[in-house]
Design goal:
The chain is built from 24 helices and 24 strands. It is an alpha+beta fold. The chain has six domains: 62 residues, Orthogonal Bundle (Helix Hairpins), CATH 1.10.287; 247 residues, D-amino Acid Aminotransferase, Chain A, domain 1, CATH 3.30.470.30; 103 residues, Nucleic acid-binding proteins (OB fold (Dihydrolipoamide Acetyltransferase, E2P), Beta Barrel); 71 residues, DNA polymerase, domain 1; 71 residues, DNA polymerase, domain 1; 78 residues, 3-Layer(aba) Sandwich (Rossmann fold), CATH 3.40.50.
Length: 690
């Protein structure tokens, strides 16, 4: 075959495969069999290999996965990915509807001309199935997929673009006849999920290989997206459906969510065929009730129905709280229950030494997944429900996420059912177990199980923030005997890490660099990361305001600690006991010897009450957009040290908005409310003169 005919055939194959993907995932009308698709794909890969000059990063062949990657970079969302408030009853849904109407100002008979609609005829909704998957933000620029970020903490997410490119339903480029009609920027928020048949296929393979079965499809989806080898992603048939928008540039003609769904579907992005436009609240209720009858037959996990105001103008007017938008809500269906037999109870040890009972049961299908384990909460809950080994129990998923035992079918109890006794020794270290209220604790601070969980917390975001040091790597380091104390992290050498699983040269360099950077986080992060009972981020922040370093903190009396704002006798007693225990003193000493800063970055003499007045004192500030010279966390910390209060949502109580690049709805709302807005240059000038 000539080069010309090769090129023509390659272009033909790419077109056929792209059309097949669209027919299957967007139009729900498959145009060819899986076997025919695979044969065409194999032919395309062969021809592209023979003609490397015809390489195209957007070719369907590139979905089969590339080389393993070193790790995931954490990036900031152009617009935050907020969660959605839940409701579980029609009455609560109606209350939300009433709040929406009040928020939009249904015009009175007199009329003031300020309402965004005259009556309910101008208020429409879209009902959209709430798929149980992993939230993702896809960013297209001039029609090309350039980035895919997980939700993360809502402000920042992990860049999983290399893996998302291997997911067939997600178009690598938007399908449009003229490039000029495509938006300059299009961010589509959606859900990546695993169909039930694929989940069952994977578990069948694991069972055949005598490997532990996965608990549910969502967990497998999370693990697949976070796999460092894109070929694993390509082998698992993940699906995608869009359910929202992020930043858009050049899409001003689309004024409703329903119109947005229709437009992105034209461009080849899958949307739910079950989404429905409703012109009244009664129709919303009917849609939710009708969908309840069909959701179990869909072939993928759906735990509710999202109801949202359709018009973007009205969405902007309603705004959002710090956690969720006011213009949408998720109606959750009652949790599905199952009946099974309790076989045994194991006690797991958490980072603070808490012993949590975990039930192992005969496997049962529940909400589309096979469930074998459930939480029993604590020993008092076990006694209250009179749960025994061998009992027939009713289980359900709380919010369809965490399985729990609801009750015992006592009329089916067999003779010999064994009462569950609290452990007298820690199951991991055999140390002393004490009960405090309903909870049991292992009081041995050297407990290996506690230590692993504490380290995983210590290195996480918001604490020491050591990127690249995930749960599996912590387990490896502990198993290899490389860490037995927090300070051991700072003694790790290249030769210790190179031989570990999935640790290539670049990964090792990145990790060692992240460990080194974490030394300068300061006393607040250290205290928050150690897992001291009752000492979370808020308490650590308060301590950092009042004490310049850990030596000053250790010199404080229990009475002095108890007088701090939001501290009490119990918290002061727990902290004081830890600070003066041999283990606590050893921890501080070893960390300081390892070069970790134990000084406060927030300290103000006399604490927060004596913070000197600045231009920021007493102001409520919101940060939005991408800042070039600051990270949001660091800037928020600096502003709070200067007397400001940093919040996440714009309201009439906001005094100042600091807007970086790509600032979106928060900036628009600030301007509509007449709130002062600074750019980064003005912020820098103000901080220089403070």
């Amino acid at each position: 075959m000539s080069k010309t005919s090769d090129k023509q055939r390659i272009e033909e194959l790419r077109g056929l495969l792209e059309k097949a993907n669209r027919a299957y995932y967007v139009e729900a009308a498959p145009s060819m069999s899986d076997r025919a698709f695979d044969e065409l794909l194999e032919e395309l890969i062969r021809l592209e290999t023979q003609n490397p000059e015809l390489f195209d990063p957007n070719s369907p062949s590139q979905r089969v996965g590339g080389e393993p990657i070193e790790g995931f970079e954490t990036l900031e969302h152009a617009l935050p990915m907020q969660s959605i408030d839940n409701t579980y009853s029609t009455d609560d849904l109606r209350a939300w509807h009433d709040r929406v109407r009040r928020g939009l100002g249904v015009e009175s008979p007199a009329g003031d001309g300020k309402s965004l609609f005259r009556d309910d005829a101008d208020l429409t909704f879209v009902c959209d199935p709430k798929i149980d998957g992993v939230a993702i933000s896809l960013r297209y620029e001039d029609g090309q997929l350039v980035r895919a970020l997980t939700r993360g903490d809502g402000v920042k997410g992990d860049d999983v673009t290399s893996n998302v490119r291997a997911i067939r339903p997600i178009p690598l480029k938007l399908m449009e006849t003229t490039k000029a009609s495509l938006p300059e920027v299009l961010e589509v928020r959606g859900e990546i999920f695993m169909p039930s048949k694929e989940f069952e296929r994977i578990n069948a393979e694991r069972e055949k290989a005598d490997e532990p079965l996965y608990a549910n499809a969502r967990n497998v989806t999370v693990g697949t997206l976070k796999n460092l080898d894109p070929t694993v992603v390509s082998r698992r048939r993940l699906n995608f459906v869009a359910h929202g928008r992020g930043e858009t540039v050049g899409l001003d003609d689309i004024t409703t969510y329903w119109g947005f769904l229709q437009k992105i579907r034209e461009w080849g992005i899958p949307v739910s065929p079950l989404a429905k436009l409703c012109d009244s609240f009664d129709q919303v209720v009917r849609t939710i009730e009708a969908f309840a009858q069909q959701r179990s037959d869909l072939g993928y996990g759906v735990d509710g129905m999202v109801v949202r105001v359709d018009r973007f103008e009205q969405q902007e007017s309603l705004g959002a709280t710090s956690k969720a938008p006011r213009w949408c809500i998720a109606y959750k269906y009652p949790a599905e229950q199952g009946v099974t037999t309790l076989m045994k109870v194991e006690w797991q040890v958490g980072k603070a030494g808490t012993l949590t009972p975990r039930a192992t049961m005969e496997p049962v299908l529940l909400a589309g997944t096979t469930v074998q384990h459930a939480t029993l909460h604590n020993i008092e809950e076990i006694h209250r429900k009179d749960i025994r080994i061998g009992d027939t129990v009713v289980i359900e998923k709380a919010g369809e996420i965490i399985p729990q035992v609801v009750r015992v079918e006592k009329d089916k109890r067999k003779k010999g059912a064994k009462k569950i006794q609290p452990p007298q020794q820690c199951p991991t270290c055999k140390g002393v177990v004490e009960q405090e209220g309903p909870k049991l604790y292992c009081v041995n601070p050297e407990c290996p199980a506690q230590f692993r969980e504490r380290v995983k917390w210590f290195v996480g975001r918001g604490q020491m923030d050591i990127e690249g040091l995930g749960e599996k790597l912590v387990d490896q380091l502990a198993e290899e005997g490389l860490i037995s104390h927090f300070a051991d992290l700072y003694a790790l050498r290249r030769e210790d890490l190179v031989g570990l699983e999935r640790m290539g040269d670049k990964s090792v360099d990145n990790l060692l660099d992240a460990i080194e950077k974490s030394k300068s986080r300061g006393m607040e992060r250290v205290l928050s990361g150690l897992g001291i009972r009752q000492i979370g981020s808020s308490a650590a922040k308060m301590l950092a305001l009042h004490y310049p370093d850990t030596k000053a903190l250790m010199a404080a009396t229990k009475e002095e600690l108890g007088e701090l704002p939001d501290f009490g006798d119990i918290t002061a007693g727990i902290l004081h006991a830890y600070l003066h225990s041999p283990q606590g003193q050893e921890t501080f000493c070893k960390l300081e010897e390892a070069g970790v800063s134990m000084k406060s970055t927030r300290y103000q003499k006399g604490g927060a009450l004596s913070t000197p007045a600045t231009v920021f004192t007493g102001k409520t500030i919101v940060l939005t957009g991408t800042l070039e010279n600051f990270s949001r966390d660091d800037l928020a910390q600096q502003l709070e040290a200067l007397g400001a209060k940093v919040t996440t949502s714009v309201s009439r109580k906001t005094d100042l908005v600091i807007a970086g690049q790509s600032a979106g709805s928060k900036l628009q709302k600030a301007r509509s409310l007449g709130i002062e807005v600074w750019n980064e240059e003005k912020l820098h000038q103000a901080m220089q003169t403070t």
